[in-house]
User: Which sequence fits this backbone?
């Protein structure tokens, strides 16, 4: 089903005013419960609703991981409305991306000489950075949905520092069978892996990092209900340290 502005307004009215369940709304609009829930969350995210952005928990994690005694070069691939950008500016220079013009306008209200704002598709832009051999000390990858297409390439942008990633929980934010199949093919898991989800994501992430001779240490994990927020320490290693003379780790 294609969501028009009229249907979106009707969804908000039924949910926020009439307090109907997702199932009831799906029946009225002749669509699936997953589609209704997904659209409702997206609509509230566009309004910068804290319930769906979790800025407090994310800020607490950043403050736990980063040190204000250091100055970092920070890349926010999906800066959104700037909820975290202001905090990141306390830690150094920030390059903030977003593809939505409304969000770019909100970011531009943050007046700081250490902030560079770019309206772009972050996935395409990081390949420019790779070509230019740019490096960052901190990367925050917080797309809506699945960050899969950024791997393993994004590890070429960081040699030593910290990597934050937000990823949906399996079985919670599956919009359709395509997403479930994506989990099977890309991450190597299915719905039976809910209990070991973080461990399997962590193992896959370490494999991605290894493609560019990086090691990852998972130092913080926050459960945000529908999402997990993972914080990694990144370090570049020599092939010798990783694999030894024989070229095989072990």
Assistant:
């Amino acid at each position: 089903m294609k969501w028009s502005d009229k249907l979106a307004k009707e969804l908000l009215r039924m949910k926020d005013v009439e307090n109907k369940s997702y199932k009831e709304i799906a029946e009225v609009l002749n669509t699936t419960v997953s589609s209704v829930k997904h659209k409702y969350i997206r609509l509230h995210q566009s309004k910068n609703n804290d319930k769906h952005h979790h800025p407090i928990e994310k800020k607490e994690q950043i403050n736990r991981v980063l040190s204000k005694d250091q100055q970092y070069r920070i890349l926010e691939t999906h800066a959104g409305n700037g909820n975290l950008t202001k905090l990141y500016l306390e830690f150094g220079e920030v390059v903030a991306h977003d593809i939505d013009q409304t969000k770019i306008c909100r970011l531009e209200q943050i007046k700081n000489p250490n902030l560079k704002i770019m309206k772009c598709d972050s996935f395409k832009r990081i390949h420019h950075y790779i070509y230019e051999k740019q490096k960052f000390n901190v990367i925050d990858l917080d797309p809506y949905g699945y960050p899969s297409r950024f791997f393993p390439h994004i590890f070429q942008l960081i040699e030593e520092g910290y990597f934050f990633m937000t990823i949906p929980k399996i079985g919670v934010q599956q919009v359709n069978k395509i997403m479930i199949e994506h989990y099977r093919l890309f991450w190597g898991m299915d719905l039976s892996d809910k209990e070991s989800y973080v461990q399997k994501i962590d193992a896959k992430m370490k494999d991605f990092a290894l493609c560019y001779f990086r090691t990852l240490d998972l130092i913080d994990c926050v459960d945000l209900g529908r999402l997990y927020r993972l914080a990694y320490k990144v370090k570049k290693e020599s092939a010798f340290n990783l694999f030894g003379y024989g070229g095989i780790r072990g």
Remarks:
- The CA atoms of residues 54 and 224 lie 7 Å apart.
